[in-house]
Amino acid sequence: MKITITNNETEFDCIAAWRIISEILSNPGAVIGLSTGKTTKNIHLNISCIYKQFPFDVSQVTFFGVDEVTNVPRDYPGACYTMLKTELIDILGINDEHFIMPHTLSDNFERECRIFQEALKERRGIDLQMLGLGLNGHLGFNQPGTPFESETWVSEMDEALESRIRKETNTLPGKKLGGFTLGIKNLMHARKIILVAKGKDKAEIVEKMLQGPVTTDIPASILQLHPNCEFILDVDSASLL
Questions:
Q1: Which of 57, 154, 161, 214 is least surrounded, with the fewest CB atoms within 10 Å of its CB?
Q2: What is the pLDDT of residues 189-218, one digit of tens each?
Q3: Spatial contact of 47 and 77, defined as CB atoms under 8 Å apart
Q4: How far apart are CA 177 and CA 68, in angstroms?
Q5: Are 198 and 9 in contact (CB under 8 A)?
Q6: Model confidence over 8-21: pLDDT tens digits?
């Protein structure tokens, strides 16, 4: 377990961006999992800026998103597909063949889970998985209580998040929103994991994740057991360590 503590947000974003770029440079056919959210947005923008100034070969790299909102339009700005396309994928010129995302709309999400998982398996699995950290310790949409042996599935969405998305998309009450996500077992099979967390509001959960017991109450605590996991933190999120 490696812990990297950065001095400020600029350094945080730069170091995390270069971890992804370094994987691409050292492994041109890498399969890289991305996460969306406030923590990762500037990391993706850093990669985009570096690529524009110093183009590097991404023709054989496969990117995918660790999770997705279900039963919303794919072009909804809060859909992980749209966020990743806007922040990174389109700027790098990644074609659809090398960008794996689940569909947001389907009449059979169990089938979509199998298709998504098989697509990664066909590419010999995950070389690098980037992860954010939820305030309650969730990874992807794997909320507290998710079994560690879980595989790709559609989870119940956080009530507050569901309410916001439902309002933004005008989704009717009869249509259930969910969180399509790689399971914890899938994440732990990644050859390399980097978890990023920043901000004072993450300090308590970071301390529990790294120094508390490994428990399904805090899904991210399982990363203590991964053989090649780095935690990139800023000084605020690391303040209780």
A1: 57
A2: 999 999 999 999 999 999 999 999 999 999
A3: no
A4: 11
A5: yes
A6: 999 999 999 999 99
CA distances from 202 to 5, 33, 74, 199, 225 (A): 14, 22, 30, 6, 21
Amino acid making up residue 177? L
- Nearest one of 232, 238, 223 to 19, comparing CA atoms: 232
Sign of the Cα torsion 232, 237, 238, 240 reads: negative
3-class secondary-structure state, position 230: strand
Nearest-angstrom CA–CA distance, 195 and 197: 7
106: three-class secondary structure by DSSP: coil
How many residues can be counted in the chain?
Answer: 241
- Listed in sequence order, the residues at least 6 apart from 199 whose beta carbon sits closer than 8 Å to its beta carbon are 39, 234, 236, 237
What pTM was estimated for this model as a whole?
0.95
Taken in order of first residue, the domains within the chain and their CATH numbers are 2-234 (3.40.50.1360)
**Would you give the end-to-end CA distance of the chain in angstroms?**
14
